[in-house]
Amino acid sequence: FMFGYQFLNGCNPVVIRKCTKLPDKFPVTHEMVSVSLERELTLEQEIEAGNIYIVDYEVLDGITPNSTDPCTLQYLAAPICLLYKNAQNKILPIAIQLGQTPGKDTPIFLPTDGQYDWLLAKIWVRSADFQYHQTITHLLRTHLMTEVFAIAMYRQLPAVHPVYKLLIPHIRFTIAINTKAREQLICECGIFDKANATGGGGHVQLVQKAVKSLTFRSLCFPDMIKSRCVDSKEELPTYFYRDDGYRVWEATKSFVSDVVNIYYTSDEKVQGDEEIQAFIKDVCSFGMQDFDHCEFPKSLKSREELTEYLTVVVFTASAQHAAV
User: Fold this and answer.
1) Residues 6+ apart with CB under 8 A from 138
2) How far apart, in whole angstroms, are the C-alpha atoms of residue 2 and residue 91?
3) Which of 10, 65, 84, 171 could make an S-S bridge to 6, C-beta 3.0–4.6 Å?
4) The whole model's pTM is what?
5) How many helices (H) and strands (E) does the chain have?
6) In 10 A of CB 180, how many CB atoms?
7) Torsion sign (Cα): 94, 96, 101, 102
8) Domains of the chain
9) Which residue(s) pair with 80 in the sheet?
10) Which residues in 88-197 belong to E strands, given as ranges?
């Protein structure tokens, strides 16, 4: 139970998604997991009923493990974990594969296996979750993204601009903490290299790989929850990261909206604010390097768009970072 619960409310509550179809690379059969199912349904029917969830660490596949100390071999797995919502609405693991390519060297581990085999499989998933959490969820998607917004803000918005005043409390120390990270944590011979299976360059590969799926929409909290099909409180009642996140997102958006509407009396006023438009363009062109797939806007057309954009900045720097 605790293992499943951590995917919802642990330090990395952003990877669990509803499983609508088993991927071909994860050939779990009904026979394998039938003993774990509680509703007299087949695995197929449980999937159709919306009771099966999946966590896939595909992004870790092919990342070079840490070899900075030749005397201590280190390893990385890229697991896939199948989870089941039981009759009490608890999320429980029912199958684990530790690699992305099925076969005799990549067996599917089950709760019916030997006690320590199953325990070890779960530990490997937790280890992968840690790498994903530290490098992608925390470093890339809160610290580094906030820095992109911060640099653009300092370059394009004068300190008297109302949006500068709105954002500065949230990103005041971003560049300082990230500079410290680059000097002590993720640098060569830093803490990552000493203590982390992705150290020695793997963590850099991981960030580069994860940027490819970083879109503007994925930073909008409601979109991110919906994209994983975990937005229903009825279906998944114990997902407190989602419930609290929605409330904080709405409160933040409401506050930002109030401020925006004081200074911009029409959508045309937003379109005509050259400094704001330069800020938005700077984030896309310099921060995100104009990646086609990132879908960051290059300009803003309305007060509503500006409100959402600034909510993303504030939420990423404050609530999302605090949650992870």
Assistant:
1) 321, 324
2) 9
3) 10
4) 0.96
5) 15, 5
6) 11
7) negative
8) 1-132 (3.10.450.60), 142-323 (1.20.245.10)
9) 56, 97
10) 91-97, 108-109
Tell whether 203 is in a known binding site.
no
Other beta carbons within 10 Å of 233 = 12
Q: Which two tokens stand for residue 136?
A: 């992608």
Provide DSSP, 226-253. Answer: HHTT---TTTSTT-HHHHHHHHHHHHHH
CA angle (145, 150, 154) in 5-degree steps: 155
293 assigned ligand-binding residue:
no
In sequence order, the β-bridge partners of residue 108 are 97
Q: Which amino acid is at 285?
A: S
HSE of 125 in the Cβ direction (CA atoms, 13 Å)? 28
pLDDT along the chain (324 residues), means of 10: 97 98 98 97 98 98 94 95 97 98 97 98 98 97 98 98 98 97 93 92 95 96 98 97 98 98 98 98 96 92 98 98 97
